[in-house]
Amino acid sequence: MITVLIFLRNFRLNDNKTLQRAAAYGDPILPVLVQHTSREQRHWYGWPATGPFRQAFTHECIADIERQLFELGLHPWRGQGDLLSLVQTVHQLFSGIRVICPHVLGEYEGAERAELIQYCQKHQIECDVVWDWTLIDPPALNSLPLSFTAFRKKVERGLRISSPLPAPDSLQGIAHELPSMSYSIDFDAIEGRAFHGGESIALSHLNDYIWATKSVRHYKQTRNKLMGKHVSSKVSAYLSSGCLSPRQVAHQVKQFESKYGKNDSTYWLIFELLWRDFFQFQYLAHAKHWFSFGGIQQKQTQAPDYDAVRCDAWVNGKTPNNFINAAMNELRQTGHMSNRGRQNAASYLIHDLGQDWRFGAAVFEHYLIDYDVASNIGNWMYIAGVGNSRQVRAFNVVSQQERYDKNLEYTNYWTQPRLF
At 187, is the pLDDT very low, low, confident or very high (cuts 50, 70, 90)? Predict the structure, then answer.
């Protein structure tokens, strides 16, 4: 029996429940590193789902986990295509297989997972789909509150953060002749990107943020700053790719508290991890309404007509507001934008320019390195007033600039020509 272990947005050895589940069987493991370039290029509102920044980041994640798996004695396969076609290819080579697969959120991902399960059932192949995406396990979805505050108060009472699972010392692999797919990336064209991928870099970043610089001590006070290496944790790209688990981050924070004491900032970082959990669970509960203009509240309102001039100006940083232009320029040139910038950019598109929030969500999906379907769409719906807040979140971007960029350091940096 061969255990086919799927790596798909769970590109790590440490604290990987899918990997641990596969190892527990004691049979030879064939890791399959999924590359799905056709799905990356599906279009939504005219935008390819995955832009060059996240493509390069994912390539680095795959290269890093591939190297680590070789060092464990395994023979990973870089497979190109959807889950079903990859498993079918392996099944033709090895008749006796089981499949261990992570549960990844998304409309297309869900459809592919359903096809895989159906195939495995038809061919009497054991298929184990593992949830390993959040700090806590999913609650009963029929009792999931619409409000984050209600959710937080409920889960914080019994919150227990377990120790992360260690990476295995060795595993039994199996030789194969499956041809690994090449994945060509023009790194020179995206040299300004904000983050590099891979579990090794993720662990180094987390250690630097929490232990070497102790920047977690001021997280709450600095998280809304627009510029600076450690003004926020910047772990979202590593969480969305699965280079880190939420448990690893929370456990490190708790260890820091044990050594140096608690404060508002250490609490607030775990608070933000619960926000992330909240949106993942909201997606599970409301997936069929996740992409509709009326959102999860199912508001029966008409989407505004698309205004190409306004939308193009917003995307390209050419609106009448330089604070918004700066945020959009940073996004296009690096694949990153601060949370404060995202809220203002979203509000401006929706409430000042009068455009469909889903267009903005598609643009963010294309550019953001840290994109995930639950947090991105959940936050856009929140600002539009069709998600987890019945209140419309319209920001006064002039006062926001006065508050968060009073000296125009950020605005000028990203709107004035710079010599490279």
Answer: low
- Residue 197 · residue 61 · CB < 8 Å: yes
pTM beyond 0.90: the answer is yes
Helix, strand, or coil (residue 32):
strand
Query: Which amino acid type is present at position 133?
Result: W
At 301, give phi and psi (nearest 5°): -125, 155
Q: At what angle do helices 373-384 and 264-286 cross, to 10 degrees?
A: 90
Look at residue 23 in the predicted model and tell me its pLDDT: 97
Q: How far apart are CA 172 and CA 366, in angstroms?
A: 38
Is the model's pLDDT at 120 over the cut of 90? yes
Residue 346 scores a pLDDT above 80 = yes
Q: Which amino acid is at 52?
A: P
Q: Collect contacts of 103-109 with beta carbons under 8 A, ≥24 apart.
A: 103/129, 103/130, 103/131, 103/132, 103/133, 104/8, 104/9, 104/133, 105/133, 105/280, 105/283, 105/284, 105/372, 105/373, 105/374, 106/373, 107/287, 107/290, 107/291, 107/373, 108/39, 108/42
* Secondary structure element (H or E) that encloses residue 208, with its range: none
Residue 5 to residue 224: CA distance in whole angstroms: 39
Computed over every residue of the chain, the mean pLDDT equals 94
Question: Are 171 and 74 a contacting pair, CB within 8 Å?
Answer: yes
